[in-house]
Records
---
Amino acid sequence: MTSREVSVEIDDHVAIVEIHRPPNNFFDAHLIRAIADAYHQLDDDLGCRAIVLCAEGKHFCAGADFSGPTGDAKELYAQAIRLFHVRKPAVAAVHGAAIGGGLGLALSTDFRVASPSSRFAANFSQLGFHPGFGITVTLPRIVGQQKALQWLLTGERFDGNAAFAAGLVDELVEDGEVRQVAVAFAHRIATAAPLALTSIRATMRAGLAQAVADATTHELSEQTRLQTTADFREGIAAAAQRRTPVFSGR
């Protein structure tokens, strides 16, 4: 269950799934497929009761890399939906940044551990773009409609303290302890009866995978439409040049 970009380590009843695209861990359909493949193999492993998703490098996941070809978004979302069909509970160890689709990846798990210096953003509006990765479903489900709407419309960045206050982060720990505490969190889950774990989780997440599938269909349609606009080109250029975008509404 180990590839060049996604590795799996078993620690008692906890599987540690690690992304290896440092320093930013930008993703594409290939990487999300590799994560989903690892998850689904772990679903069939009776020795695994919980999963920790973490990443090598400076950031958990800085989203998609818009500086080059973004690939097939339809395939990307098909693979993303597979993450929501996994039966085992998962904890994300979010060090550094979880931005855009990287936030969406963190939201696909059941729990998130971060530090005050962790950074989050659903920055799509600042790129002249529509949110994706099912964030329009997963974010309000966790933090509520109003806070999700605020973050999606402003595209503003916020730190681990704000994420913890909103309920996006479940445990806030010191810098350098994120992975350790996430693994400990998963071990606490793994002490429970495995059949009960999957049963309870299935009940609590009932309908989520289908809701994400429906959302990504709409999200992709809007992303495709907005990618043709001058505002999208300006947003991407401004991000690359590290300046404030000047949008025209065209």
Note: The chain has one domain: 1-173+202-250.
---
Amino acid sequence: MKQLFLGLLTQRPILWLILLWSALITPVNAVQLRVAVEQDATKVKVGTSTPGVVRDLNRDRILGKLAALNAFYAQPSSSGVAIEQMQSQAMWIEPSGNGYVYVGDRWYRGKTLLLPTGKGLTAVNYVDLEQYLYSVLGSEMSGNWPQEALKAQAVAARTYALYKQKNERNPVYDVVDTVASQVYHGVASESAGTHAAVNATTGEILTYNNQAILSVFHACSGGHTENVEEVWSQPLPYLRGVAGYDENVSKCQWAKTLSAADISQRIPGIGNVKSITPNYTSYGSLKTMKFVGDRGTRELRGAAVRNALGLRSTRFKIAEDRSGLIFNGNGWGHGLGMSQWGAYNLARQGVKYQQILTHYYRGVSLAKIESR
């Protein structure tokens, strides 16, 4: 592969451009999703699997061509974005035919928009929603999992993406490619199993009062999912605590030891920790924890404690030994909505995906979106 580098030049404000891009790109005859696959990068490696072209912001002018299976570096420039001698406010990378676009270190379907930000470049993959799901299923689960679990994941992930697209209204992208939204690793995570599950549920989403729901999911609840208001502040009628069917999943059982010094360093403002007092929900997850130190006291919600201490979940008990505090946990993730390992176990018992979904998301209906 040929690798080309360009100098990093001064950038300028581009908010008005972002608003323009959002207005110019309208999905036609399909639901198209915008996925941020690189953010604020100093340079972005790009390429195409088939002969490709680089277009300007409006896509009405070809700036240059890309030979198949060659790598090029895009970087910010005084004009916006530059690849070799090509310069534009923003650039589209488009493969020919049914080719893939290469961004960073992964292949993706669709096309990709490169745009400058105040900190570098952001790459946004524009991809058909159903094709996006081919990858999400393999990134979030395994394509070898039972089809009913994969179908449940397909409907949940499709619903989540549409909810974000409608409600977030971000001018640049709808979702990101990490657990901050849902994991998306491009073509490499697709398989026959993920294709089959997506195709079998094409267009199906979960609704409550005829609106797409916030269909969050997690790896493992540790035995019971949570009521949403115990984890986040917004009460949602369909995110209620239910049996997780995942209490015996060995991969979701964990332990972590933290010394007093570790905790003091991770919880700012308290100084040397003297005591901690956990407050649990009725289902056994941490609701809040009070930290008392020689310089102050702080009380944090369970999710904040999990993030600060680097724990897999908020479902744990605490023991003490000479090395510090031992957090013995069960579960992985925030514990809301569908448990992926629970879906796996239910599917192996012969439960259909529709029943899996209506178990984890209460009072919802299955609906089908129309192409637009």
Note: The CA atoms of residues 273 and 293 lie 4 Å apart.
---
Amino acid sequence: MIHIAIADDHPVTRRGIIDTIALFDGFSIDIEADNGEDLIAQLMQATTLPDICILDISMPGLNGYETLKEIKRRWPDLKVLIFSMYNNEFSVMKMLKEGASGYLQKNCPPRQLQRALADIYYNGLYNAEHAAPQLIRLLHQKDALPDITDREMEFLHLCCSELTYKEIAGIMHLSTRTVEGYRDALFNKLNIKTRTGLVMYAVRNGIVSYKDSSS
């Protein structure tokens, strides 16, 4: 039996994934969470860890990037499949470089999900047949992915709100000038010129959900 945990903040989508996996022989859903924080809390309380965690990217609280990083910090051997609507180079490479064992779009056929989970369980990795060869090459190139630091990622997340730069600085316990330095660094790395552009980039890549950016 292959034991699965799933975190997805959309109840209908989560139920659909669970019902689909229930059709697969030899699979069991042991943990169901509606966000990354809930998943981490349940994993910490579990007497036995699941074999694979299925993560969405765009979730409130801890998003998929942050949840994956926390999972790998606490349980380095726990395998993770990213199951998301996002399919851009940043999302795929960021998650794989952070330690995900596979990446799959939610519009895939059920057989592909079953194969991905089986490949991860038995081989430790899933390589989707449809993955663009250039994307695989980019994954191994040092400068292929924008080198966004953890603090810059934190700033980017806070930037997708109505907070002023001064208020963001207060939350991050930094000076306003330092926060503006993070902004300018992201402008350069992402070839973006405005805060609105940063928000659009964050939403497009699942760093924040649309509802978070609209609040």
Note: The longest helix spans residues 176-190.
---
Amino acid sequence: MPIKIREIRDAVVPREELQREWKPKTKIGKMVKEGRIASIDELFMITARIPEWQIVDWLVPNLKAELIDVRIVKRTLDSGRRPSFRVLVAVGNEDGYIGVGMGKHAEQRQAIQKALKRAKKNLAPVIRGCGNWECRCGRPHSVPFKVEGKCGSVRIIIYPGPRGLGLVAGDVAKHILRLAGVRDVWTKTFGNTKTHINFAKAVYNALINTYRLL
């Protein structure tokens, strides 16, 4: 059965609204709002983590977000079984940055907002390149070398592909790769990839390993 992945509209708060309502609580946030950090690339030269989700909205106005998975989960309390929504959201600028976050709430809209904020705080750089020996075009259309990611029982290996190949991957992986700006790869998966949350996190881990392994 195909996965119903859909885009989240109005994923980024406009700069005018942030200027009016955002009151940074961290040193990094204050530096961003004051203009001392002018780009997302400059931010990651200073710090490895994003302390406030508003920083991403301020520095990456073209960010896109997609709802990857929605599940109803139930928790047993003294008063009985209480249902809530568990959602997974992926964000990216389609140009070298990707983030994944999960949220849980009794209302679906609130769960999506929690997941969206966590995905923005998990935004990380992805190093792209042309690592396929058949291509050697030098353009950042693929990954620079073979990378591997794992979450739970799911493991994925991403191989550099020649330009024009496309994304040879499952539906969840395709959406996350596109959000990261990767266009041509082969993939090989192991484990239960029907577990969309673990599958998405494994792809995310593989992509950010392009940056960690340099």
Note: The chain has two domains: 6-125, 147-212.
